[in-house]
Amino acid sequence: SAxxxxxxSRDICQRGTSLTIQCxxxxxxxxxxxxxxxxxxxxxxxxTANQGSEATYESxxxxxxxxxxxxxxxxSTLTVSNMSPEDSSIYLCSVGQGTxxxxxxxxxxxxxx
Amino acid sequence: EDKVVQSPLSLVVxxxxxxxxxxxxxxxxxxxxxxxxQEKKAPTFLFMLTSSxxxxxSGRLSSILDKKELFSILNITATQTGDSAVxxxxxxxxxxxxxxxxxxGTTLQVKP
Lengths: 113, 112
Prior knowledge:
heterodimer; A: 113 residues; mainly beta; Immunoglobulin-like; 4-stranded antiparallel beta sheet; globular; B: 112 residues; 5-stranded antiparallel beta sheet
């Protein structure tokens, strides 16, 4: 399986600021996804990061709040904009291709104060 | 609405016990079912199941899918304290999007 890294691993941010999370894969992958896991909850898909075009967002998530880039087949970023304490979560990227097994990165734990 | 439900939500056992975790689903356009183990932040992949009745096995863990009754089970035999984690079940809805719908997770605690 692909080796996935995320930066930062964790961060504490102030309300109203923005944070960009990076996801890097050691090989080219077809699909990249961004998930959110709020405290005590399961994972929820935010969007599919599409290479060379706009991301596909799930219901309840909008581009202005969670802009996503995917400039190539090995890298993607998720920005959490104008943060509030409700954005405190673990943010995870995942990758999939071929048989559609999906593998997750190590995650970014975000705390908004 | 697409739904994945896991049971039990939490479970406490002692080392050496065997546990069975359940996952039922009601979704459109089922593609596959995946099991993950989450210890800290990152879910680690365990199994992907696409066909009914074919058991997948890895060491002390095994899983099987029943597409007629719309459920899957994850078995862990001879549990160890290192098996303590949240076990997540997810359904892949479509071969085109790769989207996963997750259940709530089962928190397993294995006591020495």
